Amino acid sequence: MSKKKAHIIRSSCKGCHECVELCPSEAISFEDGGACIDPDRCTGCGSCVTICRFDAIVLRT
Q1: If DSSP states are collapsed to H, E and C, what string results for the chain?
Q2: Looking at the whole model, is its pTM more than 0.85?
C-alpha cells in the first residue's frame, strides 16, 4: 500500500463521476457538487489521477 493518498482539487473538479466509478477501493464519493476522497479507504493506487481529464486529482503524502 502506498503512503501517498489522492487529494481532490475542488476548483478543478467538473463532476464527471469517472473517478467515483473507477476507484477500486471505493474511496471516492460525490458530495456538494464535487468528488471527495476518504483517506482511510484510499490506497494511493493512482487510478483516479490517471482517469481525471481535468487534472483535479493529485497524489501526495
Answers
A1: CCCCEEEECCCCCCCCCHHHHHCCCCCEEEECCEEEECCCCCCCCCHHHHHCCCCCEEEEC
A2: yes
Total domains in the fold of the chain: 1
Mean pLDDT for the chain overall: 95
- The domain that holds 26 is classified in CATH as 3.30.70.20
Q: Which domain holds residue 45?
A: 5-60
What are the grid coordinates assigned to 45, written together?
493506487
The three grid cell numbers given for residue 56, joined into one nine-digit string: 483535479
